[in-house]
Amino acid sequence: MIHFDNVTKVYTTQKRPALDSVSIDVDKGEFVFLVGPSGSGKSTFLRLVLKEEKPSKGRVHVAGKDLARLSNWKVPHLRRRIGCVFQDFRLLPNKNVFENVAFALEVIGKPRRFIRKVVPEVVELVGLEGKADRMPEELSGGEQQRVAIARAFVNRPQILLADEPTGNIDPATSIGIMKVLDRINRTGTTVVMATHDAAIVDSMRKRVIELEEGVVVRDQTRGVYGQAY
Ligand SMILES: Nc1ncnc2c1ncn2[C@@H]1O[C@H](COP(=O)(O)OP(=O)(O)OP(=O)(O)O)[C@@H](O)[C@H]1O
């Protein structure tokens, strides 16, 4: 599903590569934690998957496509297959829960009838049934992140990328967020989550890929977080 073949990324303003000869295969349906200290290249990895950045060397394949050969006009189509969740939720503050999730479908031209059917299903999947008409400011951080996950998943993407999704959430609430991501993964969606959250990684026992200064230093099935950073 995601295939990095000897990928190096050097930002023009930096000497040291952000990613250095990285080769990784993530299969359909896998759940992968990307760990490593700040600046080790986790976000760069995610940006390359989205074709927000291009590799300086090597090849990136996503969902069977060689991104170097994907013309710019096809990039939005690629991104529709990839849901994204961030540390800071990024909800639209003037739209309620239903509208925030529906918006993701409206912008890709889905019919209203379809939207009215699938949005409540996904709102329920993330555990927010009964809260569809709340505004973001009326929700806790954990609930806001559930909305963000619903929005990322409502189009049933093949891949879900999560960059520190529990970074702004207390440990007890984070467990609930991970249950939602696990539920999504069980539908067959490939999940890649960059995180510093050792407790979460240790509790889930999923594949762990560790980066250090842009190099993969560990790739372990059913791994733990590793050393304290
Ligand atoms: N747009 C950019 N331009 C120049 N350098 C960048 C850019 N983005 C990241 N870098 C550099 O690339 C390296 C890897 O950064 P990256 O953001 O991928 O790390 P990270 O592991 O996601 O860090 P964090 O955990 O703090 O989010 C760092 O040295 C960073 O300063």
Descriptors:
229 residues, alpha/beta, six-stranded mixed sheet, four-stranded antiparallel sheet, 10 strands, globular, binds adenosine-5'-triphosphate, Cell_div_FtsE
Helix content: 25-40%
3D shape: globular
Mean pLDDT: 95
Q: How would you sum up the major sheet?
A: 6 strands, mixed
**Pattern of helices and strands:** EEEHEEHEHHHEHEHEE
Q: Which ligands, by name, code or SMILES, are bound? A: adenosine-5'-triphosphate
Ends apart, CA distance between termini? 30 Å
Strand content: 15-25%
| Continuous helix count | 7
Structural class: alpha/beta
User: Which regions are unreliable across 5 or more consecutive residues at pLDDT < 50?
Assistant: none
Order of adjacent strands in the largest pleated sheet: 6-7-8-3-9-10
User: Measured on Cα atoms, how large is the radius of gyration?
Assistant: 18 Å
Number of strands: 10
Overview of this protein structure:
There is one protein chain. This protein is α/β, with parallel strands linked by helices and 229 residues long. It has a domain at 91-156. The protein contains 7 helices and 10 strands. It has helices at 42-49, 75-80, 97-106, 112-125, 141-153, 171-186, 198-204, and strands spanning 2-9, 19-26, 31-35, 57-62, 65-66, 82-86, 159-163, 190-194, 207-212, 215-220. The model has no long low-confidence stretch (mean pLDDT 95). The structure holds adenosine-5'-triphosphate (ATP). Adenosine-5'-triphosphate binds at residues 11, 13-14, 18, 36, 38-44. Keywords: ATP-binding, Cell cycle, Cell division, Cell membrane, Membrane, Nucleotide-binding. It is a peripheral membrane protein. Residues 2-228 form the ABC transporter domain.
